[in-house]
Amino acid sequence: MSQTAPAAEWTDRTAPTLDDFAAIARAAFDALPEPFRSAAGEVVLRIDDFADEETLASVDVEDPFELTGLYHGVDIGRRDSLGPAAEPSRVFLYRRPILDEWCERGDIGLSDLIAHVLIHEIGHHFGLSDDDIHAIEDDD
Question: Secretion signal: which residues (predicted)?
Fold first, then answer.
């Protein structure tokens, strides 16, 4: 049986801000083991409330609550060895959909969920597909 906090403990709590999410994501990134952290070191982390309409359309998602994160860039396996990528690789984490999933699930801490989404998107930076990432997760 899970312990619940008394109602009074929740009366002064607010939802984590974009800055709170950024701090949690940065801590998760900093906790990545080497050599993964170094290989992902150039990735720019960005936290937004939701993906914009253009982004949702580009990944064929209609409901903005369905997209918790997104990798944008050229994965390191497809880069030209003669020079850097044209623009920096970016990982977007979407605060509201992550909060929604966290509330619906109720079986994972928020920091763990943010780390999970971040690591999933960094997997794309390394050239892994969703199927590859899910297979790795299933082996854990």
Answer: none
Strands 69-72 and 90-94: antiparallel
Q: Can you give the pLDDT of all 140 residues of the chain as single tens digits?
A: 456 667 667 788 889 999 999 999 999 999 988 888 888 878 899 999 999 999 999 999 999 999 999 999 888 777 665 566 567 889 999 999 999 999 999 999 999 999 999 999 999 988 888 888 888 777 76
Domain boundaries, the chain: 15-74+86-139
15-74+86-139: CATH architecture = 2-Layer Sandwich (3.30)
Pair of tokens at residue 124: 């794309």
CA distance linking residue 65 with residue 77, whole number of Å = 30
Angle (CA) 72-140-131 rounded to 5° is 40
Instruction: Please answer whether residues 94 and 48 qualify as being in contact, where contact means their C-beta atoms are separated by less than 8 angstroms.
Output: yes
Torsion of CA 36, 79, 52, 65, to 10 degrees: -40
Task: Give 69's strand partners.
Answer: 93
